[in-house]
Each structure stands twice: as C-alpha cells, then as structure tokens.
User: Fold these one by one.
Assistant:
Number 1:
Amino acid sequence: MKMTAMILVTFLWAASVGAQNPVEPFIQEMQRFERNAIATYRAYQWLFYEEKQSQNELLAFENLLGVYVKRLREAYETLSLIGNPSWVDRARDIAARAYIYRALTFLEKAPIDIRYFERACYDYYEAMQLYENTTAVPAVFKPLPERIRIGTDIYHRLIDLLDAKGRDLFSFGQVHLLLRNFKVTSDFNENHLTLTRYIKSGVDSVGYTYHLAEQKIKQAFRKAFQSDQPVDVYLALPAGVYYIRSTGDTPSEYVDLATIYVQANQFISYIVEPIADWVIFYETPEYLIQNQLASLDNAGTVDDDPAAGELLANRIAGRVLEQQSENELSALGETIRERKKRIETLIEQQLERLSLHELEQLPIPRTRKEFITKVAQILENQKMGDYLNSWNRWTTAWTLAKQTTDYLQPGGEVSSAMVRLIHAVLAELY
Amino acid sequence: MKSPLCFAALLFSLTACASVSKHNANTHPTARSVALDRKNCWQAGKAPTLVSVMQTAMQTPLEPEWVRDNFIQTFGCAYEEVDIEKNAIQAVYRAILQSLKNRNVTARDELLALLRSSPPRPDNLVRDYTIYVNMPSSGSNNHRVAAYEVKILQLEVVNTVESPVAIWTRVATRFRHREDHYRALPVRKEKSDFVRVLKKAQRILRLAERGRYEDVLQMLSTPNARPVTLQNGLDDLVFGDRLHLIDVQYPRRYFPAIFLGKGIILGKNPNNEVLIMKFGEERLFGLRLDFRKVFRSDLDFEIFGYKAPEAILQCLFLKAKRKTSRRTSIKF
C-alpha cells in the first residue's frame, strides 16, 4: 500500500514538473524580450535627448519595440489557449508591460509630433484591455520585476511612471463601436465617412489628434458590409464632441450620422445598426448593467411590484412632479445618509481583510475612524456617472486613491494597498 | 449637481446643431432618407399600410374546391427585413402558425428550417408542403401524429408605408387523412392573429408619434406584466417592453419608458415632456435606464417575433429630434 502511495506521489510530482517544463522556457523567453523592450525604451530616451539623433534612428527604435510588442502579444495569446491560469497571468503581465513601454516611448516623442499621443493611447488601452473580464490586477499597478531609473527618479510601478509622464493619456476617452445587422440596401459608401470634432471658436486648441480613429471606423464599416458577423472597433478619442459624417462630393456637403460625446478617461460603448436607409448609433448599456444593478440595490429605489411601480410612476411622471412632498425629500436625505453609512461599513470590512503590512501602507492620519470617514466622503462625493462610464474600475480606483492620499498625506506615494482597498469598495458598491 | 446639468444643456444644444446640418445636406445619397421628408410617419405617397392591405386581402374567400376538401384559409405577412426572401419566409411561417393555432395542433417539424431549406426565393415558397403535427388525443396525454398539408395560394410583394418589400400570403391547410380531420378538435375561424398584433402596434406607434405617452402606457399596462431578464443583452428586448428611467438626482423617482425597437424608446423627462430618444440620450435629461426592471405586458409581440417597421422608427426618431432641437433652441 505504501509502495503504491509513493509511486502515485512520484507520478504526480513528475507530471506537474513535466507539465511546467514546456512552458517555463517560453515564459523565460518572454521575460528576455521584455528586458529587451525596457532596454530599447531606455536607449530611445537616451537617443531622443542626444543632439545628433536623427528621425530615422528614432523610427528604427520604435519599429524594434513594435516587434517585441507583437511577439509578446502573440506569445500571450498562444499561452492563453493552453489555459493554465498562472502562466496566462504571467504572460499577460509581460505583454501588458510591453505595451506600456511602447506607449511611454511614444509619449517621449509626442511633444514634437502630437500624433504620437494618439498612438500611445491605443497602446495604453490595449494593455488595460488584456485584463477585461478578468479579476486580475493590471500589471501597471503591480511592482515591476526590475526598477526603472528615468532621469533622477526610480520607479517600481508603471502607474507611477504613467502618472509622471503619461498624464496626456488620461485626456482621452475610449469609444467602443459594435457594428451589427448590416444589410444596407442604399448606396452607403464607407470611404465617404469622416470623423469631425466639434470646435467652438473655430480653432481646435486641444493638441491631440484622432486620425487613427477615422481609419478604424472606415475599416470596421468595410468589414461589416463584407461579413454577416458583428464587428467591434475600439477608438481612442480626446475628450470632446465628435460627429461621424458622410460627406458628398465636396466637404461642405455632409450628413451627420452620429454625435459621440467623449469624456476624459471614460469609456462609452455604442451599437451601430442600419435603420431603414439610415444608420443609428445608440449607446449600449450592457457594460453598465452590473454597475447599475448594484447601485440601485443600494439606493433601494424601485418597487418590485409592477402595479405599484405603475402607480408611483404615474404619480411622479404625471401631474404632481413639482409637488413632491417634504416627507419624500426627507426620506431621500435619509437614503443618502444611509448610503454613506454603508460605504463606511464596506471600508471597515475591507480594512479588516488587510494584512498588517498593507495597513501600514495606508495613509491613515490619526485614527482609523477619521480615515474611513474621509475615504467614504470622497467616494460619496464622486458623481455617479463617473463610475458608470469609467472604462476601467482600476483606473477609477487609482484616481480616487490618489485623491485620498493627496488629502491625507500630501506628497506621499499612492500605495498599492490603497488602490486595492478602493477597488474592493467600488466593486462592492457598483 | 449643477455641472452635469450644464453639460447636458451643452450636449443638447450640440445635438440641435447636428440635426440642423443634417437637413441642409440632402444632396448626398445617404441623405435621401424617405423618413426625413414625411410629415406624417404613416403617409408615404400613395402607399398603403400593411394592415389595410391585409384587411382587403383577408376578404378573399377560399375557393369552393378547397372548401369542399376541408381546407381552411389563413393569412400571414411580414415587413421587418430589408431582404425580400426573409420577409417571404416569415410571412408564410406566420400563416402556417395561424393555421396550426386554429386547429389547436403543434408542429413536430422545425417549420422555419423547413421553409428555409429550399432555395428561399419567394417563388420557390409557392409550393405544397406536408408537415407533421401533434394532435391532442382525447382521454390521455399522448399526442398522435398527423400529416398536415399546406398549400400556398398567394404570395405577394407590396410597397407599403412600412417597407417597399412587405409580403403577404394566403395559405390553405388541412389534415391529409380524412380520419384525422374528423378526429380533430373544432377549428377556429381566425384568419390572422398577427394582423391584430400589427393593428395594436400601429396604434401604439401612431400614439407615440402624437406624443400620447399616457395612452401608450395605458395600452400596454396589464396587471400580469411579466418581468424579463436580459440574458442576451439588448437582443432580448421586444417591442412594447416597459423599462424604467431613473432620475439620477433623485433615485426614488422613475419614469416608465416603452421600447420601440433599434435602441429607440418612448419616455418622459423630469420636465414632463414626452420624448422619443435612443439609448444613451436619457443622460441628457439626468436620467438612467434601469435594465433590471423590464416588464412585458403583451406576449403576442414576442410570440409572433414582431418588430416595429424601421422606416416608421426612423421617422419617429428624426421627427422627435427636430422637435427637441426646436425646444432647446428656444430654451437656450
């Protein structure tokens, strides 16, 4: 019996080692590529500020970095097909970091060629999108495998580096278009599509471009007309109002097909469908469903009974909207108080789950109570819409954590524990 | 809360600008939208509505020889698709479905698959089919199988207000074997339940066009409204589904909204103004759509797979947009 158990243990050990072996070199290769990518990024920086540099040399470095990014992405996709979560997580982190290095490289050049802001933004979104539909913490918020020295500063997280050098990325918003059911019978020509920004005073002073977006829209429409399948396209657009237009023979002849409102550091998703001989762009609420459900649960707003709901709706929608009673308003005030109380309870619960080491990283001023009250206040004061449209909850958590740290510990570093704490509270709240 | 309202006002005025430029530029092919020029969404030249076409068509009596052979006559129609073949299949499907309903039997075959199986040009649909149906047998729960003959007597394409490729059809059906005919339950005389559904939908859309929000709500409010979960996202929404628009500022307030199709809803804003808007535009009024509270009061729209005609939806939306633009241009 003992012998059998030993054989079994040996077999399991051998199987696990055997299973790891084929992938480990693959991961090591990825790590090597990542080191090369960092080296290229640093060399690019060095070259960029060198007086004798030429555009061609810079382009060569950009292309080289592009090769690393492509290879790492492919490697990650291959590993994700194998499906072992630990390998996939490691590979995803490496691929995401490579995207960020390239985004940072583009950001170096962006001040002299503003088209690079847009390119950097696509890479940043790509890196964050790798974590879509996962519970994993994005690589930008995790410690780097090796610290990076840039100028006189040493960075151990990419988010700090992005915060120092990549704030322009947060001026963009991400727009998702899902084109479906395209069987348009009118002579719709995707080459006539243009993306135009609304300019108030005649001069566009934003300082960012959106050329790639227009190309992507055209390609997506072309693909939608060629196949029956829905087509997804993700755009990075500087905050503002945009019109998707179909132009005629001269630029002055145009038809506005859709108006897109982009807010900085936000995500918005539209479904694009044909409607008769027109195209309709409407916002898809699917991405918001989970958020809304939770927030509405918290607010305790809607009656489950449709008949009662009808009565209430009639009462509100109809004649007596202005005459809402004092009692109802005071009840609403109570809800807000209850909500704040609930946020405080959630923060308290999350704090209980943190280790001593993590607690030490939090910017707790004097008392824990004071800290909880302040964080709850900051969370409560945020506009609901900001959360609902935030394209990534981690970025929202980072912004709020930074806000809290700046208030409680001015100049202090935003700790990962703080970001995780806010993220956990947001996940419970929305 | 002031800043979101200002932002909403800005967006609103921008939407107004967008619509204006649209009307100035009707020269491009894409701009030749039929719906744009319609003052009344239900009038497009001399084209009739599908309901009126059906009302005339349904006067056609069944030929005496078919009556003698125990056939019954049912009608079907469709206008939802831009594809003529798909409309034809849907119309025939609805007519056969009506026949089965009248006989109180259910199909054993996958009817739609059967209709799609042959080359689906409308002409090819005009042929005889034999399908197998379950007949409820008296005294026990067991179903008996019976052969069912389907003859497509007429399949016509008409240019209607709703679609230039609307289709209507007239079918005759009977049990192939005489003994099944005599054993079957008494037959209903309904020619097309779908036309009733069409009429109701048309009334709703006409009321929506006139901004009679309360009347639409009343038409669709029944005590037995069924809650709907959107497992497949927006694809699960059906014409006439009731949604809730929640006031962001006062979450206890909410306004019912009616889903019309293609992301378009009929609702009301906190200023008590009736709106026809698309998903996302509710934010301009400080509202949010609650997809947890979706109720379906009329199952017929779901059963018959009814979808509002795109030309009408487009017209309603663009008309409402013009009204909103005018209102906002006065307001701001």
Number 2:
Amino acid sequence: MTDRKPLYLMSPALAWLTGFMVIPCLLVLALAFFRRGIYGGIEYTFTLENIALVFDPLYARIFLKSAGIAGLAAVLAVILGYAAAYAIAAMPRRRQPMLLFFAVLPFWSNYLVRTYAWIVLLNREGLIAAVAHGLGYDGELPKLLYTESAVVVGLVYNYLPFVILACYAPLSRLNPEMSEASRDLGASGWTTFRRVVLPVTVPGIATGFVFVFVLSIGNFVTPALLGGGQFQMIGNLVYAQFLTANDWPFGAALSMVLIAIMMGLLTLQTFATERASGARRQET
Amino acid sequence: MIRHRHAVRALLGASFACCATALWAEGLVVSNWDGYMAPDAIDSFNAATGNEAELVLHATNEEIMGKLIASKGKGYDVVFVSSPFAEVLHNLGLAEDLDHAKLPNIANLYPQATELAHDKGNAFSVPYAWGTTGLCYRSDLLAEAPDSWMDMLAPSEDVAGKTTMLATDRWLLGAGFLAKGYSVNETDAGKLAEVRDLLIDAKKTLLAYDDTTFYAKLVSGEAELVHAWDGWCNYGIAENAEIKYVIPKEGSDLWVDTMVILKGAEHKDAAYAFVNFMLDPKNHGWAAENILYKVPNKPAMETLSAEFLASFPNMDMSPDALLAFEQLRDVGEAQRAYARTVSEIKAAN
C-alpha cells in the first residue's frame, strides 16, 4: 500500500493554487480568443486576431525592448549578487546569517517605497544633485532620473537579494577541501574558481538570472516611476490594455505570450539545474 | 462522519452568510474617486434621510466601467464617472433616464451645465465638476509666459527637459490634436499619424509623463512647464504663488465629471435622493472649496470669496468660457487606434 500522507499534505496548497491562481488565470487567458466589444466589454465571438496582433512589429519591438532591459538587469544583478554571495560565503560561519539578514532587509519595506526612494535620490533637485552642488559643482548634472539606466538600476536594486540568496546556497555548501585540492594540484586561484567553484554554482546563477529576468520583464511599476513612463515595457502595455484602453482580449493575449516566455525560461532553468546536479551525482 | 458533515455545513453556511452581506448590501451603493466628496458626505446623507448608504472607491473610470460592464450595471446605484463614460453607460442601456421631478436641486445648475454636448438636458447624467486642461508653469523660472501648446511640445532650449505631459490616452493625444487645430475627438487615421509624429518629437524634450505628481515637480523646481488639469494646477498654486495656469491660445478640452444613476439600481429612490443631496449648494460647494475644482452649481460658486478666487484665478472662469471648448466624447471603435497610437509614442526612442 502506498503512503498517502504526501497527497493529503499537499492537497490544501494545491487546492488553493488551483482555485485562486490557475482557474482565474485561465479565465483571463480565455479572453484572448474573443473580441473586444465596442464599449470595452467582451463580445463572445471566437477570433485569433488578438494573438496575431501581439506579433505586430510595434508590439514585438516592445517585447524585444523589455527583454533587453530585463536581460541587462539580470546580468548586472548576477554579477553583483554572485560577488556578494561569494564574499558572504567566505566569511566566518557565525557572521554569515547576519550578513544574509542585511541582504534581504530591503524586502521588509514596500516595493513602492523603495522605488520612490530612488526618485528622491536621483531627481534633478534630489539628494545626489544637492550633494554635488554642496561640493561646489554648479554645472548641469546629466539626467539621472527618467532614463533607461534608472529603470535598470531600479530593477537590479530590487531583485539583487534574490540573486544573493540563490547563489549563496550552492556556495555555502561548497566543500572547501575541493578548492584546496585544486590548488595543491597546481591550479591558480582563477583556474580553481573557473573549473571547480563556478560549475558547482551554475544552478544558483541560473536560478538568480531567471528570477530577475522573469520578474523584470513583467514589471510595470519601475518603468512607470523611474522611467517617467517613457519606456514602455511589456508589463506597462498589459496594464494599459486592462486599465486604460479597456481592451481585455488584447491584454490577455499579451499576458499569454508573456507567461509562455516565462514558463519556457523556468523550464530551461529547471533542466539546467537538473543536468548540473545529475552530472555531479555521476561523478561521485 | 456525521460530525464531519456538520462541520462542512457550518462552513458552507458561514461562507454564504459572508457573501450575502457583500452581494446584497443593505442600502444605497455609491462609487466615487477617493476624496472627491466631503469625507462626511455619506454620513450626513444617512443622517438626513435615514438611509444606509455605503461608499466604495474606484481609482479610474476604466476600473468602475469594467465592473459595471461585467455585472451589467448591477450592484451599484450611483457612480461618478467622466462624461465620455457616462455616454457609454447610456449607450449600453445601463444609465437611468433621469426624472427631474425627483431632483429639485438640479435647478441649482448653471443653465450652461444643462447644455453639455454629451447629454443635452441632463437626460442621463448630472455634472458634478468641470474644467479645462492647459499649461501649468513656474512664472519665476520661465523667461516668458507660455501661450501655446507648442511651448510645451517644442520648448525653447532652456525649458527642454523640464516639461511633463499627461500620460492618459485622451489627454496626451488631446494636446497634439489641439496644437494642430484638430478636434479632440479626431479619428481620421492621417491626422492621428500627424499627431503621433508631433508627440514623438515632443517626447525628446520631455522630463517624464506624469498624471499624478506633476504639480509637485513644479513646486520642487524639477519641472518648469507641465501639462495639467486646472484643478490639479491649483494644488501647485496653493503651495507656491509663482505657479500659474494658462489655457493655450489653440484652446483646451472641456472635461466634465458626472453623477449617473444606474438603471438596474436596487435603491432608486435613495439614489435620486443622494444625487439631489449632492446638488445642495453646501455639499456641492465642498468640492470647489476643498479640491479646488469648478462645480457647475451657481449658488455654490457664488459663496466662494473674492480672496479665494484671486488666489486661484482659474476657479473664476465663467460657464460660457468653459462651454466654448469641445468636450471629450466617446469615440467607440477608434479607442483601439488611440491606444495603439499611444503605444507607438511611448515605445518610440
């Protein structure tokens, strides 16, 4: 007889997710196959128009642009986050929990508040400008806020802790004897890192990258606030279809493609992690 | 097992009870923007009439429209929406055909407020506030006062990078339409493309698109010239008297926010009583005094002091001057072209 306990334990969470996430999502996605009514409601005639419209050059360009911004944010977050995680893992064991605590501390405050803090810092009459002028600089500063860089900075800042946590996990489990052995066998520090440490931590990097990418590509708050609404990302486009253009079918079609991209990436990441850990199991 | 079934029944019962109170509210349900009427308006209405009215909030017209279209107008009695949306409610057959005999206070409206293009004779909507869209600026920072939409769309070198524009589809396009001398409800594809190109050029000199904090940017000096609704410019003027409002020479749109009673209202008499209550000069005047929006209520506007009108000159605009401008109307199918044009502008580099 099979043990049914796992099934019982899992069913409340499954029921919750199915009832409150999967079903509502499917209901919204189903709208993609209907027409927008003349006054913004739904007209229940089947159409593939909305899906086709997603691939219109205008919207395809917005998808690519968003992917570019999200990709840049993810790369930067991985570089910064990996370095930080490496440093934390190299600290004495008893100090590590405290450092990790500091890394996730920003999560204790509201996303919007954190984003507004950047506006206070970067705006033309803001803190950075005030400090520069206080130090005697009286020229015009380059435009910091409402730029694409400001959007990237905001995304990296907000999602960095995810990367630190994702990379810290494999780094902290890394057996220090492996690095020692590598050096004893004559490998330089860089070679040791490249051939011993990095391969083992690839799953962490992949997880961190995909997390930042997926969260960034659908983000609409940061581009609206730090980009001054001048950089339309796919999240803003979806938001506009639902809340200003009242074109729910097209908004649903956009979300559908976005979700497909995210699922694809998450699947790839799972495969990468599986392969990495599978390879390790075979070695041992 | 029996115990089990009891528990299930109790749970079901409890959940039905919860839903019941939410779905079949006791009294009148009014939906309005946050802060758009006196905080105690509902309480004083209930005290005066013995009703049990309840206020729910919507953040945007589109939000309440989505709910009303989905529920076919059920669940709400009175909604506050902008005039193009009132028009849509009427076209969908969701708006009550108003019986003026039940609204004696409608006599307080300026005669011009009964001649609005979207609803002549107030057949299905009662105007609550009205005003214009123009330029709000720091008179102490600009070398000369702006007088044209082009002063914002193609600013002089020292103003470039210090302008903001409204991001909402209709007003963003509206600035372009007015600058070109077209109707604010233009739907011709060629003209829409011209306006798109004009607004893409304007984007290059823009600090940001901003619908909610533009007046704060003027106060801080981050922006010097912004696209603004008159009422919101007043919030800047209240903090800094150097901030001024001007309607460009090419004109403005006339925006009107309205009260609409739903045809499917379950508390129709109470709904009429509520709209009538809001038309009382004291209640209606609250909006003028506190949120600095012009209200189309003659006795209410007459109570405003000369000092107040001197501080906020656009509050003193005559109803005839307002009526000279074209109202934003529902454009039906063209809304999709508008949304696409706005996406093209926002996605342009």
